């Protein structure tokens, strides 16, 4: 399963699933397939009444957010965000990459009554961005990938906060309390699996603890769903409270399923949209706002804020950041690939208005697609420059000179 962990394969799965969903939605059986995914499954299980599509976006996607939270915690504890100095540059770039796209969207949709969609173009898809860099970036220095990863992780943190605070309606405090209790128990129980601690199990089986963690995790998700907070936030909470070492193990175990099943399944269901049979002039301002703000806003915001950050941020030895302007522009192009989280926020922002949700989905797919094409070119050119520079510094020794 090693290849499934690869960033390039993860991006490929997402792209194929998104294209397949859009294609199938516009075939003769497309409407029936869309209706089937929107059909509610009346299981009567604990009062849950969700459609197949919502089981994917609210249920399975919580696992993806769980893995994001584990990555975030690792970066904050021992990674590239564990000090103010390290976090300053990606934090400034991420801030610019959120503020400018949101501003462009609001500017293009002013007076339309669709301002609620401002969060949609603010997200960056970690899997896709890193995948494009992996495919076309042979020769790109590790420091550039680290910068992109840190920026994308912070970007997703902002997206998580947006979902938690702006897409929560009528919160039920009692269920939030229950979720807090089960999440706390989850965190405490996870520490029983931590090596070299008072809870070392030796050769005893760990399945009772793993079972308890599974039950507590499901309970946290259930109470979060009932509380009115978007259920994927449960995954974030669990990832943050889980002990770091067991969390790393859980990430290793679950990552292939997230890359090969959960994210493609979500991309397929989210992209299952019939292309509107209308003229360009009849498309809503939300469509144009997202289409422009996602690739262009990210490019401008990350480039401006990242350049400013690289000028003022310094390493511990007093030197400036090793990132050049061309590197920041390249990362800014990759940042315009919104896809997964943007699709989720589009569905949340325009919930109840199916037509606008569909147009927002198309805008995310087209905007991300444009960003992918531009990124592929820019990354390829930049990688070629780095390879040529490396060849000049370390020229190959020809047989005649040996």
- Terminal residue distance: 42 Å
What gross morphology would you assign? Answer: globular
| Biggest sheet features | 2 strands, antiparallel
Please state the structural category. Answer: mainly alpha
What is the N-to-C order of secondary-structure elements (H for helix, E for strand)? HHHEEHHHHHHHHHHHH
The CATH homologous superfamily is called Na+/H+ antiporter like domain
State the domain count. 1
What does this molecule look like?
The protein has one domain (2-167, 230-388): Na+/H+ antiporter like fold. It is built from 15 helices and two strands. The chain has helices spanning 2-5, 7-25, 30-38, 52-77, 84-109, 126-136, 142-166, 173-190, 207-227, 232-241, 244-270, 285-312, 325-335, 339-349, 354-393, and strands at residues 40-41, 50-51. A two-stranded antiparallel ribbon has the order 1-2. It is globular. The two termini are 42 Å apart.
What is the secondary structure topology, with strand pairs?
Blueprint lengths: L1 H4 L1 H19 L4 H9 L1 E2 L8 E2 H26 L6 H26 L16 H11 L5 H25 L6 H18 L16 H21 L4 H10 L2 H27 L14 H28 L12 H11 L3 H11 L4 H40 L9
